[in-house]
Amino acid sequence: MKNLLSVNVGMPVEMQYKGKSMESGIIKTSTHEPLYVSTVQVEGDGQADRVHHGGPEKAICVYSYEHYPYWEEKLNRNLSPGAFGENFTVSGLDEHEARIGDVYRIGEILVQVSLPRKPCYKLASKFGVEDMAKQVTDNGFSGYYLRVLKEGYVTTGEKIIVDHRPDHDVTVAMINRLTYHDRQDRTGLEQAMLAKELSEDWYHKLSKQLSAL
Fold first, then answer.
1. 69-82 pLDDT, tens per residue?
2. How many Å apart are CA 188 and CA 103, to the nearest integer?
3. How do 88-91 and 29-31 pair as beta strands?
4. Looking at the chain, which runs of residues are DSSP E strands?
């Protein structure tokens, strides 16, 4: 069963990292109110760094609730939905299940998987764990982004319906593997080139990686 367990939003706040102040939108709060989802973001949400977050290719950040027990044990703390800065906390759609180009119907909206989430230092700041980004690239629990094909309202608790699956079998997990681990996997990279729905920047990066072999 694929479900939207929580919708989480928050505006940028000041945080500390290595003794320096910064702004980040990683702090999210779960809400049960219907929120409007546009092609660039969820209502009530904001991004401090609009180069790397938000916008048409990264309108919605998704994280799998199936990863929460692992992190709760690893970090020795209880975690609430939205803990990883995601807008949608989901079940049944982790990185191995979600294909690049998948189209999901959630409430009134229609969304498409566009690229993995690239972990950054803001996770380290949020959790107080210096190598948090490395841990995420090591275990592959990255989360991913959705582009919005049809705007509308969405509410916590909605079912997630798979509206369309592409012919290829390129998952978010596969893109992570080729990017961070098996960079010399020619067969895998050639297969990844079938995922035309992958964000332009990431597709170009993997294409260059393949050309260099």
1. 999 999 999 999 99
2. 23
3. unpaired
4. 3-9, 13-17, 20-24, 29-31, 35-37, 60-64, 88-91, 103-106, 109-116, 144-150, 152-154, 160-164
Which tokens belong to 42?
Answer: 């969820």
**What tens digit of pLDDT does each residue of 106-144 get?**
999 999 999 999 998 889 889 999 999 999 999 999 999
- Select from 162, 170, 167, 163 the least CA-distant residue to 203: 170
pLDDT score for 21 = 76
Instruction: Give 178's contacts (C-beta < 8 A, 6+ positions apart).
Output: 185, 188, 189, 192, 206, 209
Q: Is 164 helix (H, G, I), strand (E, B) or coil?
A: strand
End-to-end CA distance of the chain: 40
Q: Residue 100 carries which side chain, given as an amino acid letter? A: I
Quick one: pLDDT band at residue 186, thresholds 50, 70, 90? very high
**Cα of 192 vs its chain's centroid, Å:** 18
Q: What are phi and psi of 25, to 5 degrees?
A: -100, 20
Quick one: DSSP state of residue 108? T
Instruction: Tell the residue number behind the tokens 């989802």, with chain if given.
Output: 37
The secondary structure of residue 98, as a DSSP letter, is P
C-alpha separations of 66 from 1, 93, 150, 182, 196 in Å: 12, 9, 27, 25, 28
Q: How many residues does the chain have?
A: 213
